[in-house]
Amino acid sequence: MLSLQSSFRARRSSPATLVADCYASAHRAFESGDESKATHLFGVLAMLAPRDERAWLGLALCQERSGRLRAAASLYDLGATLAPTSTRCHLGLARALRELGRVTAAEAAFDAAERTCVDTEMLAAVCAARRAL
Asked: Most buried of the four, 36, 44, 84, 133, by CB within 10 Å?
C-alpha cells in the first residue's frame, strides 16, 4: 500500500486517476490471489468512490472466493443500493442469494439485473444465470 500512496502523491493525481490506479492495483492483487491486499484496496476504492460498482464487486468477489456467501451477498446488495444501475451488482446478489437457498430473493435480484441491462450481451448473461436456478 505504501508504494500505491507514494505513487499517488508523486504524480499529484486527480481524483479520477486515484480511483483508476486504486482499482488497477486491487484488480492485480485479486488476480494474483492476494485476497487480503485486494480486499484492502477494494475497501479504499469504496471510500474514494462509494458509487463505483467495481469497489463492491471486488469486495464481494473476495468474500465469495473465501466461501463467505452471506458477506458477499451483503456487499453486492450495498453495491446495488449505491449504484442502482449496476447490472453486475444485481446479478452478483442474485447468484449469491441463490447459493444461499433464498430463491424468492434471488428472483427479485434477477429481475433488477434484467431491468438495468443496457446491452444484449449482458442481458443474455443474466438470462443464462437465471436459467441455472
From this structure: 44
The model's pLDDT over 70-88, given as tens digits with 9 standing for 90+, comes to 999 999 999 999 999 999 9
For 98, the enclosing helix (H) or strand (E) is helix 87-99
C-alpha–C-alpha distance, residues 7 and 5, integer Å: 5
DSSP string, 39-89: HHHHHHHHHH-TT-HHHHHHHHHHHHHTT-HHHHHHHHHHHHHHSTT-HHH
| Distance in angstroms (rounded) separating the CA atoms of residues 39 and 59 | 6
Which residue ranges form the domains of the chain, and what is each CATH number?
2-131 (1.25.40.10)
Q: Give yes or no for a contact between 106 and 97, defined as CB atoms under 8 angstroms apart.
A: yes
Grid coordinates standing for 98? 441463490
Q: Identify which of 115, 95, 120 has the alpha carbon closest to the alpha carbon of residue 105.
A: 95
Give the pLDDT confidence score for residue 132 in this predicted structure: 87
Contact 97, 89 (CB under 8 A): no
